[in-house]
Amino acid sequence: MLLYEIAGLSEDDITRHVIMPIAQKFGSLDAYLEADQQGSMFAAAMGPHAYKRTFCCTKDGYMGLVPPESRVSDVVCILFRMQTPVILRKIEDGGSWLDGEAQYELIGECYMHGMMDGEMLNKGLERTRFTLR
Is pLDDT of 88 > 90? Predict the structure, then answer.
C-alpha cells in the first residue's frame, strides 16, 4: 500500500498538492521535470562512487566522500604518484622508527572536492616522510 493510500489521498491529490507547488517554484512543470531528470542523472553518475562512502568536511572546509571507517582525527593525504587522496590514521601505540618517522595505517581512498586534479601541489603544503604500516 502506498503512503498516500494510507492517508486516504488519491494520486491526483498528491500531484495537485505536492508536485504542482514544487513545479511552480521552478516556473513551470517542464522546468521542474528537467531539474528532476538532471538530479536523477547526477544520482546515477555518483551512485557507484558513493557506494560505501561517508560524506565529510575537513577542518579546512573541503568536502568529500571517505570510507565509513574514517574517524575525526584521521588525515587526508596526497601520496606521490597516487591518482586519488587517501585517508591515513596515525598509529599512536606503534612509536616511531626510522629516524623518528611517524607511522600511519592506510584506511582507504577518498574523494575530496578541490584536491582531485593536482590543485594541492601549488598550495605550498608541508611534505612529510612517514611510514605506512
Answer: yes
Spatial contact of 63 and 69, defined as CB atoms under 8 Å apart: no
Range 65-91 burial, b when 16+ CB lie within 10 A, else e? bbbeebeeebbbbbeeeeeebbbbbee
What is the reported pLDDT for 130?
Answer: 81
- Give the containing element (helix H, strand E) for 32: helix 29-50
Q: Strand (E) positions, the chain?
A: 54-57, 63-66, 75-77, 86-90, 103-109, 111-112, 131-132
pLDDT tier at 39 (50, 70, 90 boundaries)? confident
Q: Which amino acid is at 83?
A: Q
Distance CA 66, CA 80 (A): 19
Q: What DSSP string runs through 110-121?
A: -EETTSTTSGGG
Nearest to 108 by CA among 75, 81, 61: 75
The pLDDT assigned to 46 comes to 75
CA distance 53 to 65: 6
